[in-house]
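Hey, quick one: can you model this chain's 3D structure?
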Amino acid sequence: MQRIFGNPGSTELAFLRDFPADFQYVLALQEAVAVGMADGYAQATRRAALINLHSAVGVGHAMGNIFTAYRNRTPLVITAGQQARSLLQLDPFLFSERATELPQPYVKWSVEPACAADVPRALQRAWHIAMQPPRGPVFVSIPSDDWDQQAEELAPHEVSAAQRADSAALAALGQRLAASARPVFVVGAGVDRDSAWQDLIALAGLHGALVWASPLIGRASFPEDHPQFAGFLPAFREEIHRRLAGHDLLLAIGAPLFTYHAPGKGPYLPDGLAVHQLTDEPLMAAAALAGQSVVGSIRESLRELVAMGRGTSRPMQSGRKPAARQPLADPLSDRLLLQTLAELRSPDSIIVEEAPSSREPMHDHLPILRPDTFYTCSSGGLGHSLPAAIGIALARPESRVIALLGDGSAMYAIQGLWSAAQLRLPMTFIIINNGRYEALRQIGVRLGNERPVGVELPGLDFMELARAQGCEGLRVSAAGELKAVLQKALKTAGPVLVEVRVV
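Sure thing. Here's the predicted structure for all 503 residues.
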């Protein structure tokens, strides 16, 4: 870990003394932005990222994105300065009274070392815990005067954390797949995290399975233009039940059974559906509502299932039909924006999304075609994807990173634009400005509240907000302007923000 994401305070000054020449401190203007950038960087590199926060208040500011990192299964080593040990019994200014409890339960491990000599080993242990599947954030509180003490050099220590699934359980699952007449797969973020796209494609093709994306997942795990791709399951019981009807075997791969957004009625699953799950998360397996779960490496398990083959041939099931093409006409809509972006962007560009009300149009008009090219927050919390896009751009300079954000979402971490400008990252921020929290209004209609208060966002000028922080700012208000502005924004050497005003 040679990059440190943070926003320093007085309890971190000793840590930053004599800063190594081969390290980089990536400065954020607020702690939530620091965690978001580190989350994106860690996901893109598949290695734990290091974060430096300021005592209790800094951890408090960061908690929203710590929660999201926990849901994203992102490996992070989060350090926070604590007041000097010599003052801890005096209730000093900036004292974090119960430091290890503050980030819980959204860290895998939390510690304040008993003495200064234990700090190096605590950091080493934190790295290994963060990297063990299921990965996630860990927390180390470090008193400020510990950095002036001597500690023994640690011996190198490596951990092999791969989990092999039970072969007998996989063999039984393979037999049931071979006997199934109409299997359906529900795939989650675990497939992309375990670099298992090609293995999943091979298994789906082998068994002719229909493939649905699990509700509200943070990564894409199957090519969305594939003929077997059915689409995206909604996070509602009745609608999941309807879409799974008629199948005889369900296999959830790297996905929970299931993620719901609101209460529902009726049975969770259709009658006659045999339910199976393949996951690398023991707690996810324990929480499954029915069926049989196999815990182990997703990639290696898929390869074993592919190697088993199948006994009889069956027709391949057909997935969704292409969405209707949007005309070039005003008033400008998010659907036209997303259709145009899909036509202009490079297939290996990376989409980082936090535009909840435009997610369905994105699913229809902006298909994700390659692994490691889509990220969003798995928590439902806002303020993650703008800084996460910056971290991903830092980790993946060979690919254009496109942050696709709602107007309400962007304001949770808008100061991240300053970090992008300072780092001179070649990336594009697209703000879909409809002047309101549209996703909240849509959910309100579903729940019987058709006119919720507190959802209107008049007066925001994202073009000027971008320019004030050192980014180029552009604006589109009419359909005829869209293509030319996006073409420019996708080729700009530094960070550029495009505000697209839609109905």
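One thing worth noting: The first helix runs from residue 13 to 16.
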